Amino acid sequence: MTLEQDIQFALEHDEAIEYKQYENEILADIAIENIEFESVVLTNCKFMNCNFERVSFYHTQLNHCEFANCNFSEGYFKHVQWIDCKGDGADFSQSSFMNITIENGSYFCTNFTETLWDDASIQNANMSNAFMPESKFKRFSVVNTNLEKVDFFKTSLKMFPLVTLQELQCRKILTKSKESK
């Protein structure tokens, strides 16, 4: 079955999508709300204008996927790897990221408002112009990632001394934080 068929089946039968692999799937304008993905691998998949609101991902790997103008608000991501994915302009507001890795991705102008990041790692990614106001960070590391012009309004930056950041990027973040006070 295709991913779209499995999503339709999961919605109709209130079931999770488990232990599946999908490759080169393209989905547009589809509502994927309240579905649970468990031990799923998505490779080279493209999603356009899809609604993933309140979707949960557990032990899932996303490789070279694109999420153009997608809504992931109130999502839950646990033990998830995002490898070389694009989520520019996506909405992850009020989502939780637990034990996740984001590598080599682009999340330009992405909305991460009121998100929780616990045991999360972001490496070699573009997060510039992202929105992270009122977000919470625990055991969070960022390496070689563009955080230029990220909005941290009402976000505590006291965890940043524990974060692994390049010296220049750290200065930019702290300077912008002080300027906004």
Notes on the protein architecture:
By secondary structure, the protein is of the alpha/beta class. Helices cover 14% and strands 33% of the residues. It has helices spanning 3-13, 167-180, and strands at residues 17-18, 21-23, 26-28, 36-38, 41-43, 46-48, 56-63, 66-68, 76-83, 96-103, 116-123, 136-143. The strands form 2 sheets. Strands 1, 2, 4, 5, 7, 9, 10, 11 and 12 form a 9-stranded parallel sheet that branches. A 3-stranded parallel sheet has the order 3-6-8, with no helix packed on it. The longest helix has 14 residues, at 167-180. The chain is globular. The model is unreliable at 161-181 (pLDDT under 50).
Number of helices: 2
Helix/strand/pairing class, anyone?
A: alpha/beta
Sheet with the most strands?
9 strands, parallel
Strand fraction equals 25-35%
State the separation between the terminal residues, measured CA to CA.
53 Å
Beta strand count:
12
The general outline is: globular
| Oligomer kind | single chain
The whole-angstrom Rg is 16 Å
Mean pLDDT: 89
Please estimate the helix content.
Answer: 10-25%
Order of helices and strands: HEEEEEEEEEEEEH
Runs with pLDDT <50, length 5+?
Answer: 161-181
Summarize the structure.
This protein has helices at 3-13, 167-180, and strands at residues 17-18, 21-23, 26-28, 36-38, 41-43, 46-48, 56-63, 66-68, 76-83, 96-103, 116-123, 136-143.
